C-alpha cells in the first residue's frame, strides 16, 4: 500500500479509536462505550472538526477499512495497523471489530451527546481541549518566580506585543470554558489535575482577570 493511503489507517480517526479501544482494556480503563461517546463529543464540540470530519464520516471510514481488510488483492493495509487492530479487537476479527465501532458511533450520533455533568471529562479530552492552559504551566506552576502573581503577570506580558492577538484570546476562551463547564472546584480538579497539576478555579480566574486588564491597558 502506498504511504499516503496507509496514513488513513495509521493516523487520524481510525488510529485514535483503536488506541481508545486498547486503553479501555487496561486496568482501570474507561468502558469503550463511554470513550466512543467522548470521541464523538470532542468532534461535536469543535466547529472545525464537524466541518472537516463529521461523526457520520468517521463511521463510514471504519466500514471502508473493514471492507479493505476483507478484500482480496495485492494491496494490504499497513502492518502496524493490522497489529494495532488485533490488539484493539481482542478475540474478535478485525473487520467485525471495525464494523462494531461504526455501528456504535452511528447509535451515539442518533441519540445525542451527554454533557460533562452526565459523562465526566476524561484526561485525554482535557489534554486536547485545553492545550494553552497546559502551556501556561511554566508561569503558573513552575515555582520559578517570587510568587504566583508574579508568574502570572510575566506569562501574560511574555506574549506582548506580537503574540497577544494569537495566544491570549484562545487562552482566555479556554479559561472561560473551564469556568462554565464545571459547577464546582471538585469536579474541575478531578478532570483537570491529571493533565494540569496546578489547576485551580481561583488561579484560572486570576489569569483571566489579568488578561482582561492587559487588553484594556495595552491594546
Question: Brief overview, please?
Answer:
The protein is mainly alpha-helical.
Strand content: under 5%
Largest sheet: none
- Global mean pLDDT: 86
Radius of gyration, whole Å: 21 Å
Q: Count the strands?
A: 0
* Structural class assignment: mainly alpha
Helical percent range?
Answer: over 70%
The low-confidence parts are none
Query: Order of SSEs, N→C?
Result: HHHHHHHHHHHHHH
Q: What would you call the shape?
A: elongated
Spatial separation of the terminal alpha carbons: 53 Å
So how many helices? Answer: 14
Describe this structure in words.
- With 219 residues, this protein is mainly alpha-helical.
- The chain contains 14 helices and no strands.
- The protein has helices spanning 3-10, 13-25, 32-44, 47-52, 55-70, 79-89, 94-111, 123-129, 131-135, 137-141, 148-157, 164-181, 185-192, 201-218.
- Helix 2 (13-25) runs antiparallel to helix 3 (32-44), helix 2 (13-25) packs parallel to helix 6 and helix 11 (148-157) packs across helix 14 (201-218).
- The radius of gyration is 21 Å and the shape is elongated.
Amino acid at each position: 500500500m502506498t504511504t499516503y493511503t496507509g496514513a488513513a489507517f495509521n493516523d487520524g480517526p481510525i488510529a485514535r479509536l483503536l488506541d481508545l479501544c486498547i486503553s479501555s482494556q487496561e486496568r482501570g480503563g474507561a468502558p469503550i462505550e463511554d470513550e466512543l461517546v467522548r470521541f464523538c463529543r470532542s468532534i461535536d464540540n469543535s466547529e472545525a472538526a464537524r466541518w472537516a470530519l463529521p461523526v457520520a464520516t468517521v463511521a463510514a471510514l471504519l466500514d471502508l477499512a473493514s471492507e479493505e481488510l476483507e478484500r482480496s488483492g495485492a494491496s494490504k493495509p499497513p502492518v502496524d495497523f493490522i497489529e494495532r487492530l488485533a490488539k484493539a479487537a481482542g478475540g474478535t476479527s478485525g473487520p467485525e471489530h471495525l464494523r462494531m465501532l461504526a455501528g456504535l458511533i452511528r447509535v451515539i450520533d442518533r441519540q445525542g451527546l451527554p454533557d460533562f455533568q452526565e459523562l465526566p471529562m476524561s484526561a485525554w479530552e482535557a489534554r486536547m481541549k485545553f492545550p494553552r492552559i497546559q502551556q501556561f504551566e511554566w508561569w503558573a506552576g513552575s515555582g520559578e518566580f517570587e510568587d504566583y502573581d508574579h508568574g502570572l503577570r510575566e506569562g501574560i506580558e511574555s506574549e506582548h506585543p506580537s503574540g497577544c492577538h494569537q495566544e491570549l484570546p484562545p487562552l482566555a476562551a479556554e479559561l472561560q470554558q473551564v469556568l462554565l463547564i464545571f459547577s464546582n472546584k471538585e469536579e474541575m480538579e478531578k478532570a483537570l489535575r491529571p493533565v494540569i497539576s496546578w489547576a485551580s478555579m481561583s488561579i484560572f480566574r486570576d489569569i483571566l482577570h489579568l488578561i482582561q486588564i492587559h487588553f484594556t491597558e495595552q491594546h
